Amino acid sequence: MEVVKTIGRRKAARARLYLSEGSGKITINKRDYKDFFTTQNMQYLVEQPFKLLDKVGVYDVKANIDGGGVFGQAEALRLAIARALVEINPEDKKALKDQGFLIRDPREVERKKPGQKKARKKFQFSKR
Predict the structure, then answer these.
(1) pLDDT value for 92
(2) How is domain 4-98 classified at the CATH fold level?
(3) Are 18 and 3 in contact (CB under 8 A)?
(4) Is the separation of the CB atoms in 88 and 19 below 8 Å?
(5) What is the average pLDDT across 42-62?
(6) Which residues contact 109 (CB under 8 A, 6 or more apart)?
(7) Which of 1, 21, 86, 114 ranks highest by number of CB atoms within 10 Å?
(8) List of residues 6+ apart from 59 with CB closer than 8 A
(9) What is the 3 state secondary structure string of the chain?
């Protein structure tokens, strides 16, 4: 099997992923994923697509992640892993789609408008 290349995005985070057959090692920015994502919640997010399809320990993952915050990076990586698994076996698409792993969350930060404190918050109005 050759290397499968995919990309995942969430907010300002981008994850470029290279998936190949191996022993299940997940490397992010040349570090182990447990060192990169320190909380159990984010480690669980990364492992979700593999656990759903019972493919834990089958594929090696190398990822380059940049931009955004840590949680957005974890969700971007999950999307990239799910896309790579579908590219390898298209029959897995239904199971991953039903869990929402193939949906790119479109929500982005709203821009700040001039004459306002933030995107929607205004300065206090004084009548007199």
Answers:
(1) 92
(2) Ribosomal Protein S5; domain 2 (3.30.230)
(3) yes
(4) yes
(5) 93
(6) 11, 12, 119
(7) 86
(8) 19, 20, 21, 22, 24, 50
(9) CCCEEEEEEECCEEEEEEEEECCCCEEECCEEHHHHCCCHHHHHHHHHHHHHCCCCCCEEEEEEEECCCHHHHHHHHHHHHHHHHHHHCHHHHHHHHHCCCCCCCCCCCCCCCCCCCCCCCCCCCCCC
Amino acid letter, residue 109: V
Q: Rg of the chain's alpha carbons, rounded to an integer?
A: 18
User: Model confidence over 67-106: pLDDT tens digits?
Assistant: 999 999 999 999 999 999 999 999 999 999 999 999 999 9
Q: Which of 98, 92, 74, 93 is nearest to 9 (CA)?
A: 74
Mean pLDDT to the nearest integer, 34-44 = 94
